Amino acid sequence: MSFTVHEVDAAIARRFSIRGAVSSPIRVFDLADVGIDAASFLPRIAPTLHSLPLDPYDPSIAAEQLVRARSPELYRAHETEWLLFWNELGTLQFTNASAGPQFWSQYVDPDLRVELDAILPYRRRSCFQYLATSHPGQYKWRLRELGTRTFAQAVSDTRARPRKFTPSPHAVYGDEGILRLIAVICQIVCQTASVFTTIFRITLHQMLTYANSGAGSKPAPEGIHQDGSAFIVSALVVERHNVVGGTSRVYYAKEASPALEYQLQPGEGILQSDTHNEYWHGVTPIYPADPTQNAYRSILGLDIEFVDAKNLQAEL
After folding, report:
1. Pairing between β-strand 280-283 and β-strand 26-30 as defined by DSSP bridges
2. What angle, rounded to 10 degrees, do the helices at 57-70 and 110-117 form?
3. Pairing of strands 199-210, 26-30
4. Measured between alpha carbons, how far is 228 from 275 in angstroms, rounded to an integer?
C-alpha cells in the first residue's frame, strides 16, 4: 500500500499566539477556530464511523478484569494462553468482537459464564498514523501517511499491550479537513510554552460509542486517565444522537478537582497536555435520552507524540 505526503497550510494558528504570550495547555476549540467548515465537514465524516468494526478490546479487558477479580487462580492458570490469544483480537474485530469474553467462558463456572455473556462490544473504532514535520519559519506542515501500525500506549495498564485497529478509510485519513485539523493542532502545540520540538507522530482515532443501555455507556472505560502522549485532542465531537451525559473533564492532577468541565457539542473539541504537563482527563457516561431509539456519540481524537530528530528515520 502506498502512502502520500501532504503539504498543509496552518497559518490560521497564528491567531492563537496573538491571543496571549503563552498558549494554554488546555483549550476548548471549535472547527471554525481551525479553519474548517463544520456544515460540510461533520456530515462528510459522520457516516464513516458507522461502518467501522466493533472494538474487541473493550469486552476483552472487561472480561479479564471480571475473571481476575472473581477467580484469580483460574486467571493465573490461563494467563499465558490468554496473552497469546490477545494477539489474535486485531483480526477477530472483523468477525467476532466478543471473542475475549468467549475465551474465558470455556473455563469458568455457569454463574460467571452468564456474567461474561453479558459483556458486549459497544464502541466502533479505527486509527491511522502520520509523521508531521514543520517548515522552519513557516506556518506549513508536511504530513506523511504512515498507515495503521500496531498501537500501544505509554501507560501502566492493559492499554500498554499492542492493539491493532482497522485503518480509517481513505475518505477520512486523506480528507482535506482532517489534514487541516492535524496541521493546525500541531502548530498550536508548537506555540505552547516549553515545547521545542517540531516533529510529531500523530495518531488519528475514530470512535463511536453506543448508549443504548439504560445503565449508561462509558466513552472512556479507563475512568480518569492519561493517554500516554505529550498532547492530545481528547475528543472532537462529530455526533451526539439521542444522548445525555458525556461531559469532558480535565484535571491538573489525578486526585484534584476538574480544571475544566465541559460538554462538547458537535464540532467542538479539547486540545490538552497529557504527559507533557502531567494532566489527566475523563468523560462521564452517556445515556439514551429516549430509550426506545438508537443512541450514540461519535468523536475524533488525536495523540500527539514528540519525535527526536535523531530518531526520524526510525519513524518512516
Report:
1. unpaired
2. 150
3. unpaired
4. 6
CA atoms of 62 and 205, how far apart (whole Å): 21
- φ/ψ of residue 229, rounded to 5: -115, 160
Backbone angles phi, psi at 218, to 5 degrees: -105, 110
Distance CA(122)–CA(114), nearest Å, equals: 18
The string of DSSP codes covering 9-56 is E-GGGHHHHHT-SSB-SEEEEEGGGGT--HHHHHHHHHHHHHTSPBPS
Strand partners, 151: 163
Kindly report the number of other CB atoms within 10 A of residue 46's CB atom.
15
Q: What is the pLDDT along the chain (316 residues), one digit of tens a residue?
A: 668 999 998 988 877 755 544 457 899 999 999 999 999 999 999 999 999 999 999 999 999 999 999 999 999 999 999 999 999 999 999 999 999 999 999 999 999 999 999 999 999 999 999 999 998 778 899 999 999 878 777 776 777 788 999 999 999 999 999 999 999 999 999 888 788 888 999 999 999 999 987 788 988 888 899 999 999 999 999 999 999 999 999 999 988 889 999 999 999 999 999 999 999 999 999 999 999 999 999 999 999 999 987 666 666 6
Bridge partner residues of 299 (DSSP): 207, 237
Q: What's the pLDDT score for residue 313?
A: 64
Give just the sign of the alpha carbon dihedral 155, 232, 168, 222. positive
Match 530518531 to its residue by C-alpha cell. Answer: 311
| H/E run at residue 237 | strand 231-241
Q: Tell me the backbone φ, ψ of residue 109, rounded to 5 degrees.
A: -75, 165
Tell me the β-bridge partners of 298: 208, 239
HEC profile for 162-178? Answer: CECCCECCHHHHCCHHH
**Grid-cell match 455457569, residue found:** 110
Q: Which grid coordinates are listed for 219?
A: 466513552
Strand partners, 217: 286
Q: Please state the pTM of the whole predicted model.
A: 0.92
The answer to whether 132 touches 5, Cβ cutoff 8 Å, is no
